[in-house]
Amino acid sequence: MSKIRMERTQYSLIADGVGEHEQTLAAGKPFWVFFSSNMGVAIWLMGVLIAGMGLDFGDAMFVILLGCLIGSIVPAATAMLGPLTRLSQMEAGRFSFGREGKKLPAFLNWVNSVGWDVINNVVSAAAGVALMSEFGVTTPFWLALAVLVGIQLVVGVYGHHLIQDVAKYTGILLGLLFVVLGIIAIHKTGGAPIVDKVSSPKAMLSAFLLILAYQTGSWSAYTADYTRYLPQNTSSRTVFIGVFAGLFLSLFIIVFFGYMTASAVVEQTPEGVMKALQGLTGHFAPLVLFLVAFCAIPANAINDNSAAYCLMSTGFKFSRPVSAIIGAVLGYILCLLVSGSFIDYFENLLFLFAHWILSWAAILLVHWYTIGRKEQVTPSGITRGFVIFVAVTVASITLFSSNSLYTGLLSESVGGVDIGPCIGFVTAGLVYYASLRLWPSKYKTVR
């Protein structure tokens, strides 16, 4: 591991981006950031849910493969902006949304980051309590949670450089252990679940959109955070392939194991998956608990660090460590207050976020590949991109959301399948592109 050093803490890290002299990251490192962060029991549950939709092995493998492939494209594309702009992912939105307009998506992604912090830690802290009980040690939930949050916060406060190193070694460890665990579990269950009916087109579409919403909605707003330290002359193809491979491989592996072991899962929740894997692995049960507890560390270190970037992009001029601490402490308090029903509520809320993230990503990418590469300028207020983003996001949720929090006006007419994020991505991109062609931008504000 390279010498541990703290990432710059000043607000200028967000406003001005990393310096060219700081762009020394090895090309292969971003792969591990995204590979290690997808290693978790919540992703395993995704495979269980797909089996519960009634998909046979052939259809399930087709949907999982297609969903992982397509779902990894947009996050890998947004990652390419990192070394070229030297900005965090949310801050790179200022070129298409304006200096004021980029604050709204930055705030939304701050909420998103803290929310995933809560969901990951609730399950992992419970696993930590159970792991200690295996050795006869009674550990209160608040203490197990505090240990997890403390470790994550140290990594998050040190920032990007330590995150890259931690991700590499934890990614190798988690990858090997989950593969071993998956093979043992498949052996005990006897293989793929038996389905006594033909897979319906609706079920296949729902499964595909589930994977797509997670992969694009969770990662598109983060990826440049962990590629911007790559040298500016790093080819975009290299950046794309590294991020794409990390996201695709990790998601496919874990969802595959989830599908193959679904018959053993009685309760379709992260906790239910954990109990099933404990039962399937017998004497290796402590390994399951260790994995569930440990996998939150690299994932939430990323959440804490990116939450800090987002909070600073909203206009709060805290230092990066202070911003990271604010998010981590808020997440810790929420973890102590939540109930099982709250977790369900918050997961549904986060699924709604796929609507805005995909609309945002479409505008960001269209702007970059039509204007941004030629001239990086920041409009002072809000732009047409911001207006289109808000309008498309509101319309997408209003019409198509299929969620316990809100059901869209047209949801039933499309079979209750939430196609809103996909439609929003295409609509926002096309409308923004057309507006640039019809009314060329005249913004000339200094970067």
Architecture overview:
The chain is an all-alpha fold and 447 residues long. It has one domain: Hydantoin permease. It is 69% helix and 0% strand. Helix 8 packs antiparallel against helix 15 (296-313), helix 9 (141-158) packs across helix 15 (296-313) and helix 10 packs across helix 15 (296-313). The protein is globular, with a radius of gyration of 21 Å.
List keywords for this structure.
447 residues; mainly alpha; Hydantoin permease; 0% strand; globular
Q: What's the number of structural domains?
A: 1
CATH topology: Hydantoin permease
The rounded Rg comes to 21 Å
Task: Assign the structural class, choosing from mainly alpha, mainly beta, alpha/beta, alpha+beta, or little secondary structure.
Answer: mainly alpha
**Assigned CATH class:** Mainly Alpha
Distance from first to last alpha carbon = 36 Å
Uncertain runs are none
Number of strands: 0
Estimate the global geometry from the Cα principal axes.
Answer: globular
Q: For the report, how would you describe the main beta sheet?
A: none
User: How large a portion of the residues is in β-strands, by DSSP E?
Assistant: under 5%
What is the percent of helical residues? 55-70%
Superfamily (CATH H level) name: Hydantoin permease
Provide a count of the helices. 19
| CATH architecture descriptor | Orthogonal Bundle
Mean pLDDT: 89
The secondary-structure element order is HHHHHHHHHHHHHHHHHHH
